[in-house]
């Protein structure tokens, strides 16, 4: 689920050979479905060789930076030209709170977004007008979302945020280990982050040989289990196909309030809702 640096460089070279001029790469730190982290250090080396703008979409995975234990996942992010990060995801800031950071110090945002509306952002004021952020933003009349992050950080501290991340990752690890122990549950891959992706195989399919027919049947399981959990009102767990993979459940862990019992409940529920399929 992640970028292969050598393949990436081949694609850059191919585009150049075709006369195109590649100018940026969008690497992902924490993909939405699998929670995979692109190898940023190696991508940064390639970007330097080919003079590419390196953007890192750390919307989902950026939260790991708060954890001394897990921030190695984003090793190399300091070399990015720009980074997007959503504190409203892993860190649980109130929706919405998205940060976009650029290394550039030449007033790039102003140069890109400014409409120089003379009726709004006067330049002849009595103070340093570089503090006026309105003319730099893509949006105009919006809430100062950064304030939520600042307030939350003040309230629970760096340590509190770190504990939140560490706890979520520990809980995801517990869930993954439970999945490995139980009959009929199968991990799509070892989770790198808190995306725990897995199939539920009902007893009627457990003796089938692995093949297209088997996966066609497995594909139909998650939508039915999801419908049943919603109608029962017990859970809301997402599922989706991915590439050539049949529908699988994706349990993401964020909340510091969830416990091991909740993880057990989740697996028990899926089994009891799907065992007759
Ligand atoms: C959620 C997400 C986004 C989009 O963020 P929004 O705040 O919902 O617009 C972008 N990239 C990744 C990897 C995400 O998980």
Description:
This protein has 277 residues and is α/β, with parallel strands linked by helices. The protein has seven helices and eight strands. α4 crosses α7 (260-274). The model has no long low-confidence stretch (mean pLDDT 95). Helix content is 36%, strand content 14%. β1, α2 and β2 form a beta-alpha-beta unit. The protein has a four-stranded mixed beta sheet, covered by helices on one side. It has a four-stranded antiparallel beta sheet with strand order 5-6-8-7. It has two domains: 5-152, Type I PLP-dependent aspartate aminotransferase-like (Major domain) (Aspartate Aminotransferase, domain 2); 157-274, Aspartate Aminotransferase, domain 1 (Alpha-Beta Complex). The radius of gyration is 23 Å and the shape is globular. It has helices spanning 5-17, 40-50, 108-113, 146-181, 212-219, 221-232, 260-274, and strands at 24-28, 53-57, 82-85, 99-102, 185-187, 195-200, 238-242, 245-252. Bound molecules: pyridoxal-5'-phosphate (PLP). Pyridoxal-5'-phosphate binds at residues 28, 31-32, 57, 59-60, 86, 98.
Sum up the structure in keywords.
7 helices, single chain, 277 residues, PyrdxlP-dep_Trfase_small, Aspartate Aminotransferase, domain 1, lyase, 8 strands, catecholamine biosynthesis, 4-stranded antiparallel sheet, 4-stranded mixed sheet, PyrdxlP-dep_de-COase, PyrdxlP-dep_Trfase, alpha/beta
């Amino acid at each position: 689920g992640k970028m292969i640096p050598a393949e990436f460089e081949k694609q850059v070279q191919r585009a150049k050979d075709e006369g195109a001029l590649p100018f940026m790469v969008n690497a992902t730190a924490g993909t939405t479905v699998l929670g995979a982290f692109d190898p940023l250090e190696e991508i940064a080396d390639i970007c330097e060789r080919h003079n590419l703008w390196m953007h890192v979409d750390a919307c989902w995975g950026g939260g790991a930076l708060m954890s001394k234990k897990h921030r190695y996942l984003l090793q190399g992010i300091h070399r990015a030209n720009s980074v997007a990060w959503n504190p409203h995801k892993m860190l649980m800031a109130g929706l919405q709170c998205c940060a976009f950071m650029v290394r550039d110090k030449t007033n790039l945002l102003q140069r890109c977004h400014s409409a120089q509306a003379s009726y709004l952002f006067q330049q002849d004021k009595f103070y340093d007008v570089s503090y006026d952020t309105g003319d730099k933003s893509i949006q105009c009349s919006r809430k100062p979302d950064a304030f939520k992050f600042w307030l939350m950080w003040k309230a629970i501290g760096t340590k509190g945020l770190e504990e939140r991340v560490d706890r979520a990752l520990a809980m995801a690890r517990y869930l993954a280990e439970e999945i490995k122990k139980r009959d009929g549950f199968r991990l799509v891959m070892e989770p790198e982050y808190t995306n725990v992706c897995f199939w539920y195989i009902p007893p009627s399919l457990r003796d089938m040989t692995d093949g297209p027919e088997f996966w066609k049947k497995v594909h139909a399981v998650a939508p039915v289990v999801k419908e049943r959990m919603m109608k029962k009102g017990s859970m809301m767990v997402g599922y989706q196909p991915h590439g050539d993979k049949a529908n699988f459940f994706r349990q993401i862990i964020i909340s510091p309030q969830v416990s091991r019992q909740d993880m057990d409940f989740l697996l028990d529920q899926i089994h009891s809702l799907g065992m007759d399929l």
